[in-house]
Amino acid sequence: MTDIIRTDVLIVGAGPVGLFAVFELGLFDMKCHLIDILDRPGGQCAELYPEKPIYDIPGWPSISAQGLVDRLLEQIAPFKPDFTFNRMVSGLEKLEDGSFRVITDENEVFEAKVVVIAAGGGSFQPKRPPIPGIELYEGKSVFYSVRRMEEFRGHDLVIVGGGDSALDWTLNLQPVAKSVTLVHRRPEFRAAPDSVNKMYAMQEMKELDFQVGQVTGLTGTDGHLSAATIKGPDGDTEVSCTRMLPFFGLTMKLGPIAEWGLNLHENLIPVDTEKFQTSVPGIFAVGDINWYPGKLKLILSGFHEVALMAQAAKRIVSPGERIVFQYTTSSTSLQKKLGVAG
Amino acid sequence: MTKLTFIAHDGTHFDVDAENGSTVMENAIRNAVPGIEAECGGACACATCHVYVDEAWTEEVGEPEAMEEDMLDFAYDVQPNSRLSCQIKVRDALDGLVVRVPARQG
Fold this sequence. Notes:
Chain A has helices spanning 16-27, 43-47, 65-76, 164-173, 193-204, 299-317, 332-338, and strands at residues 4-12, 32-35, 53-54, 63-64, 82-84, 89-94, 100-104, 109-117, 123-126, 156-160, 179-184, 209-212, 214-221, 224-232, 235-240, 243-246, 250-253, 269-270, 283-285, 290-291.
């Protein structure tokens, strides 16, 4: 069994609300570990709209989403949170002493006295392209990511998409696969121009094939692909293939949290508005993923929620300890924690 | 007020009065037109408010900008008259605009 990672508070989701939870919990001396399915902090702010301005963060007439994430990271740095990226939480189990054991999809084991779900719209997962019957091939001949390049050796491979993932894997798998056909609905790409130029150069040398169009059908038996139908400007064509990699971006799904035994309300987690606690004591839900009467999915609402949640979490992490409400402006003990005491 | 018509995938017509300056997507959501999801809330970041602009209106509505074209890559069954409805602003010249909702959003 792998080493157990122990922390006071395990935060699921490293978006803006999860990050600010570290601050509020840190003021009460609780150590936090954050898990996120993305490869970096920021959640939707970093993944969906990093350069877009947000106009309703108090004190910031306008701030870019990535700018907000960067400043939150700076703000929580004194509390030295730990991060585990590229992981989805899968299992949760309540232990005899009242704490929680959480397992990730890569079998890391965490134990925490409190779990805070700050998972926003859910975990980002590859979007299934709108091709009828594609689910029959998933995991056997259709894959949404490349875990091992060897999986593709000697195969006729179709890659679908026009972003960096599609172009990078087209270039990287070309020497490994028997043949590579890239399919994208238009000749312009979102990917880095350098990769696009390389791809066109390889097409010129007939080292790969690029087709403008949309994949509309798959042929095969028992999950083993034999051909894909491509609807192009001049009608349908059929391309023989035994592997397909569609890159259609990411979508958000609640995922395994739905199986944790928490009460749910239309894929959201109902909480009380005093502690933001779920139906399971010790598990809290903050930000876009929670629901209560009057809920607004605003970052600023999430910030308020974590401040109240931290009080309740402290009672669980340090039972019996008196909680003193203090202001960061005047409390020297809080300022020491923030590393700003004079 | 500018009149818009949404035709849902099952053929149901939704005639709505839209305020100039609002987006076509906002009017779909406000009037509960089925099939418009608008997951990202209008940031041109999700491609779940995809519509087909009626052929008679494609010229007046205009072409998508580069960022919108990029997002359309994620939409289902993209046609030459495909647009993201969050990127179409309602104005006088669009009075009577007809858009169709696709079978599914992504």
